[in-house]
Amino acid sequence: MTQRTVAEDLARSLPTTSFVAGKWEPLSTSKAFDVETFDVIDPVTEQVLTTVTEADETVLDRAVTAAHDALDSGEWGRMDGAARGELLHAFADLLQQRSEDFADLESLEVGKPGIEPRVIDLPQAVATFRHYAGWADKLTGQSIPTPGYMGRPTLSYTVREPIGVVAAITPWNSPTMIASWKIAPALAAGCAVILKPPEDAPLTSLLLAELADQAGLPAGVLSVLPGRGAATGRLLTEHPGIDKISFTGSPETGHLVATAALRGFRPTTLELGGKSPQIVFADADLDAAADGVALGVFANQGQVCAAGSRILVARSIHDEFVDRLAARAAAVVPGDPFEPGTTMGALINARQLDRVLGYVEAGKAEGARLVTGGGRPDRSGFFVQPTLFADASNTMTIAREEIFGPVGTIIAFDTDDEAVALANDSAYALAATLWTPDVSRAHTLARRVRAGAVAVNGWSPLDPRLPWGGSGRSGQGRELGLAGLEANTHLKTITVVL
Ligand code: NAD
């Protein structure tokens, strides 16, 4: 058996319904009610991997009721932080033990080369559960001195309370890791979570539901409701029993989610897209920068919110850098994620393929120079060649819009001020990378560049301890770190008049 067939068998063996109140919805019931199903397509073979039953309003109602029961009258609501931390550690242990299965499923459903989930997604997901396992018993408030009340002394203090039932809506590009970013802090804070995984890649989230059961999470604390965005996703955002929505996805959907949330006065965390600059200064280590920029453009086929797809290069080193980057692109090996040697997989679906090829045409039409790529390799699957445009301007469509494919746009600059102005001239503000050994320049410009996270001499370092998020079209609020924990709490002030 090849690793691919092992992964395909695993995909077919997973439950294909919703996980609600600690149980899988029976398939037969779903069929009797003529519930909708959707196919999960392998982006490499273009074949159906499995067919999943969509969660409808009835299933959602049950999940919301189970979540409130767990919080309001079940053991979860009474459990102390240390005990919640133990459960999160148990979850992390199981995730670690099943890492190979998760990695295989993620390669299969997303089309990413096997190395990526093994060095990024799964280690990050496990680390996120462990990080928040440690926070669960450290949610503290403050005591705040005041002059008192009507001449009497007071004792005032704050406490952090769970925000309630959190709807977690995730995208297909890193489904395991991003689900962990939402589930782990919410559970650490004592919330219950209803996860709506992406319809293109729901399999790893179904496996997460199995782990919830095995880890001993009380029924209703984590439900997983697969379904399409316009159906299950929309219902979730409109359900009055949801207390907070944590969404990662496109700005367009983010706007719909935020509008629905606002109608119910529900807070949101929105992690949306990006058009992140990577600025290569003349004094940069050009080989290190070329490696890092190539990673930032081509990792996960460019389907990364933090993709460093706007490559700003000092004019004095421009031509030399473009040559080095083109050599990196030429060394990329597109192919089946399960074949050894593959360094780039397929795009998620046919729509994404058309969208990326459309941007390539726009780049050519607007006068950018195609350095390399731009087409499809001669094989089946939703593949696009690693693509670089040079001689571009920041006003071109390929510099302004998120492509979410392996396409880099190179723009020359003359001065540091111009580099900062170009970097900041974007509707997005998620991440930025500076390539320079000059610490004064690095620290000064890191403060001037508009982004939620700035990295120097390394593309997008990830760690659950580091807050992550953007502003503008990139979203609002933060995940990860203490900020990501507190985003799942209400801050309550208590004053005792003594
Ligand atoms: P998408 O917006 O199409 O879908 C994201 C999720 O929202 C999916 O689960 C989908 O089913 C659901 N959805 C769709 N319509 C909905 C609706 N009307 N109501 C509620 N839910 C709905 O995004 P995508 O194509 O899956 O992911 C790509 C986008 O995600 C890119 O823009 C990318 O930059 C962004 N992203 C951001 C981050 C980040 O941390 N900032 C991380 C990963 C991806």
What characteristics describe this protein?
single chain, 498 residues, Aldehyde Dehydrogenase, Chain A, domain 2, six-stranded mixed beta sheet, globular
Concise structural overview:
The chain has 498 residues and is an alpha/beta fold.
What overall form do the CA principal axes indicate? globular
Biggest sheet strand order reads 13-14-15-12-11-17-18
For the largest beta-sheet, the strand count, sense and barrel status come to: 7 strands, mixed
Broad structural category: alpha/beta
Q: Which regions contain 5 or more consecutive residues with pLDDT less than 50?
A: none
The CATH superfamily of the largest domain bears the name Aldehyde Dehydrogenase, Chain A, domain 1
Bound molecules: nicotinamide-adenine-dinucleotide
Task: Give the overall average pLDDT.
Answer: 97
Instruction: Classify the helix fraction into a percent range.
Output: 40-55%
* Structural domains: how many: 2
| C-alpha-based Rg, rounded | 23 Å
Gross CATH architecture of the largest domain: 3-Layer(aba) Sandwich
Counted by DSSP, the helix tally is 18
Please name the CATH topology of the largest domain.
Answer: Aldehyde Dehydrogenase, Chain A, domain 1
Q: Give me the count of strands.
A: 21
Structure overview:
The chain has 498 residues and is of the alpha/beta class. The chain folds into two domains: 3-272 and 474-494, Aldehyde Dehydrogenase, Chain A, domain 1 (3-Layer(aba) Sandwich), CATH 3.40.605.10; 277-465, 3-Layer(aba) Sandwich (Aldehyde Dehydrogenase, Chain A, domain 2). It has helices at 3-13, 27-32, 57-72, 75-78, 81-97, 99-110, 115-135, 175-188, 203-215, 229-238, 251-263, 286-298, 318-331, 350-365, 397-400, 416-424, 439-448, 481-486; strands spanning 19-20, 23-24, 37-41, 48-53, 154-162, 165-169, 192-196, 222-224, 244-248, 268-271, 277-280, 310-314, 369-372, 387-390, 407-413, 428-429, 431-435, 453-456, 471-472, 475-476, 489-497. Helix 1 packs across helix 6, helix 5 packs across helix 9 and helix 12 (286-298) packs across helix 13 (318-331). The mean pLDDT is 97. Residues 169-173, 178, 196, 198-199, 228-230, 233-234, 237, 248-250, 253, 256-257, 271-274, 305, 402, 404, 430, 475 line the site of nicotinamide-adenine-dinucleotide.
